Amino acid sequence: MRNRLSEADDLDKPVKRNKRRSTSHLKMVPETLELREAVKAAAEKYAEPLDKSRPFLKGELEQHGRTLLDQMELPEKYLGFAMVLIGNFFWKRQFLATPFERRLLLLPHCLKHAEGCPAEYDEFGLDCEKCGACSIADYKVKAEKLGYKVLVAEGSPVVLKIIVAGYVDGILGVACLNVLEKAIDKILIAGVPSYAVPLHSGDCKNTKMDEPWIWEVLEKYEPLPEPETASYLPLMRAANDLFEDRFEEYLPRHRSGNGQTGALAFTETEAYQFLQHGGKRFRPFVTLAAYYALHPEAAQAHRANKADKWDIPISVGRVAMAIEAFHKASLVHDDIQDEDQYRYGKETLHRQYGIGQAINIGDYLIGLGYRLLALGREELDAAIVADVQGKMAEAHLKLSDGQGAEMAWSSGETSTLTPIEALQIYALKTSPAFEAALYAGVRMAGAVEQYAELITNYCRQVGVGFQILNDLNDWRGDDHNKLVSGQDAAALRPTLLLALALQDAEGEQKQELESVLKPDADPNIRIKTLKRLYKDLGVFDKAERLIEKSRWRAQDLADEVESDDFRQLLHFLVETILEEPIQDKSEPEPQPEVMVPLNLSPSK
Description:
Blueprint: H1 33-47, H2 58-72, H3 79-96, E1 103-107, E2 121-122, E3 125-126, H4 135-146, E4 149-152, H5 158-164, E5 170-175, H6 177-190, E6 194-198, H7 211-218, H8 233-241, H9 247-250, H10 263-276, H11 282-293, H12 296-305, H13 314-338, E7 342-343, E8 346-347, H14 349-353, H15 355-375, H16 382-410, H17 419-429, H18 431-445, H19 449-474, H20 487-490, H21 496-504, H22 507-516, H23 523-536, H24 539-559, H25 564-577
Helix pairs in contact: 1-3, 2-3, 3-6, 8-11, 10-15, 11-13, 11-18, 11-25, 13-15, 13-16, 13-18, 16-17, 16-18, 17-19, 17-21, 18-19, 19-24, 21-24, 22-23, 24-25
């Protein structure tokens, strides 16, 4: 296996995996009710014999959709519709076995009448119960009487957070095909029973759906003796729980826990607050999932208990928390170095308390990481703790090398950046964190030698692909962190997009590019100019192709793994981390902010 990102032809090197065609243009809903019902009936028959022991990966679901269309001799434009319906009937029995009070009904705001709608958004969502002028109220009122949680929002990213936090176990969603793919994909591959009713169009204005389709599942409950499909949801909830109910147990306070306040308790209080709140807790999940994938006895014991949230051994949980502590420390320092203003929807720590205090809080988080690893000696072999600590230290050093290279470039000569140099910075900054999280879980489960090289190469592909995807997302903005598009360009950070533009620009384009990269150039003009040049030079398309190649290479590496559970996890991580963008060429319409209904109460 290759261990370096240094070959000049790396950007164009072919890979053996067949290209998976984009489905972003294949979102047509059949025009007649007769055809929609025919596809629905065929999808139900097609899904009946499918292996339901594990969730679909996205590529597998797409292939099933294509097969169904071939059998029905229907055009490819209905692919998205076919995929949704096959997914529905894969999960239908398990969704119907979910009690009403453990279900979420997700409705789109575009079902309301656009003209003259008197309803307003409040902390409960769309307040339409007293209106009755459109169908939203009918579904909402009936569902709430049955016990559903109801959210009226369009593809809201809060849905998976509601699921992971333990509020609900199944989703009944209504949306256009684009939003269904965007909002439901991660939920489906994580193993959450879901049933989706597609809208007839994505016009987001007075659209319609086949109303009998929602009524036939909304009011039906049919219990099963046990779930048919293995799910990552219990482990996601366990990773989340490390920072919720069990946080103080796993990481006791030394100062603020004794009631001490003021200056001596300040650093611990703020560090614990930053560690406990914010973020997806994805790296701790990776560690836990890898541990249980290669420790079948421990996993089987949990499955036998049929609990919806696993009780993690305290030392294993502390190692997973240490991964998050080191990650959070890097975010505090990175925010300072990049002069970022917001993190997790709040002002960054250096804006709240000053650079000195923020540096100190970041250092304290590093100390917490080491403390958590040391506490792991209570149950783990000392050799395991030493190996995990060594891998985390290696990741920390590589991250510092990559961050230092980025800052050195930003203060130097911009025109010397090449795509290979940008990829090398990415490999140092992003990949080691994934590698440390995955390695820690594998090492705690037993011997790691047979997987060591694979983990390194796999995480390089995933990490680099993730950072390129992050580059693209920078041009789409990020409402959660209150970012506007093009912030990396405004700050003159060395991105792959910029490196590709510097490589390909000639003549007037080259002169224009170099002009806006001068330190004294107007940042707003720089952003507008770079966006235009990136489009003209095909930079965004090239970046997307590189993400595809990273995805393919990571999938090929995963295919080499003999362990079924570990191989499935590696494919799941590729699908989750390198999620394919849906609206990659257009700006999404702004949607109203909708908060989670206040009557949610997680199960314990």
